[in-house]
Amino acid sequence: MARDSNVYVCQECGASVAKWSGRCDACGGWNTLTEEAKPEATPKGLGARRGRKVEFVGLEGTTARQPRRITGIEEFDRVTGGGLVPGSAILVGGDPGIGKSTLLLQVAAALANKSGDDAGVAYISGEESIDQLRLRAERLDLTKAPVRLATATSVRDIAASLGGTGGPDVVVIDSIQTMFVDTLESVPGTVSQVRASAQELIRLAKRRGFCLFLVGHVTKEGVIAGPRVLEHMVDTVLYFEGERSHQFRILRSVKNRYGPTDEIGVFEMTGGGLSQVPNPSALFLADREEDATGAAVFAGMEGTRPVLVEIQALVAPSPLGTPRRAVVGWDQARLSMVLAVLEARSGLALAGSDVYLNIAGGLRITEPAADLAVAAAVVSSVSGVPVPGETVIFGEIGLAGEVRAVGLGDARLKEAKKLGFTNALVPGSRAKEAADMGMDIGGIRHVADLLNLFDASANEVRKTETRQYSMNPRPPKKAQNGKKAQNG
Ligand code: TYD
Ligand code: MG
Fold it and tell me: Which of 27, 165, 215, 421 is deepest in the core (most CB within 10 A)?
């Protein structure tokens, strides 16, 4: 192959350039450019031949509405927006080993058991052998389900097998990165192969009206390798995520043409496959210490995805002239700012204390929306009073000590509610809007309000417990009471 007939295609975003470089100019990914055969020359106009006339119709009309297919796995059905739409394509993305194949085998079995006939559900694997698939089915106790198994990687073969009458009405392709179209020269897994294979399969699904699942592996950057270019081709994009150190897995819809996008389904990986978690807060709170001081749950957003994380702070008297400020998972400068604002605007004495801040679970947060949760964790550690139970916190803190509104408050609260939280501390200006979320919302306008919150409960706690660290009495009591009266 002549060199100049090739282009370099970014495996992350699909951008193509003529010259190789270490970094993709389009998405900024490092080492993502791979040499691929240049696609056919771009088509030259339409020529003289006239096309057929397209028929226009009104918005109103009778549509043959096929019922959605319900799996009976509630956590899954919720994420798909109430069942599978015939002819739709669903991309299921996730890290390797997170449990995508397990989930889809369970979904396939559930659908097959429901439909009751042999035609229903096909599971095509390009990664595992029939024996391996059967072993998994045995482990999941699903061997009796009438799922049709096959191993294949050629899209041409798959298309031929799914044709004709009596074809399946649900097809699982595990994974799209192993599929290839034999008219392309590039190897399976490259952007052009992934794109072409998906295009063929999706076209087939629309034509035959079967529901298509495509499994896509995610790279460490959090983007489905290649499949980022698939996101716009499919109807629904689901991410299956979770931490290796934890048992729970979250299925999240980030795009859905037939349902809401901020729904999540929670599962637990057990020895016998994935089991649903009807009450996720129990699982989520399992690792947290109840009533621990210095811990606050932050309702954050990771891109378009809401994520709840625990922020832990420890404030201890420092033996050093320059107290230590150690941060894991957050911005050190941002912590200094929050501490300075707490000190200057609410009179909390921190100058002689070491402050340690940790984002539990190894997550790295970049949002300023975490300010208020960090402040709450710090105040909680200083006052020895835990943050009120079942409470999530978010809000940005300004230099004057004011708490500013942040974006996507609804999504944060929705996630918190889904995970079982009943209370929220939000920026004061948003408290009214948030009130109809069905949660107990506390509006915080100024960091001094935050202190009042802990001071008030501290008075009750103080009767039974001795507090390790006391708050600096500098803030004038009058002003605090005045504020409280306003809020109450
Ligand atoms: P798998 O579905 O193969 O992941 P993916 O398809 O996303 O790569 O899941 C593999 C992991 O799940 C593996 O580490 C073992 C674990 N697992 C269980 O814990 N219990 C089970 O019943 C099964 C089938 C897998
Ligand atoms: Mg797999």
Answer: 215
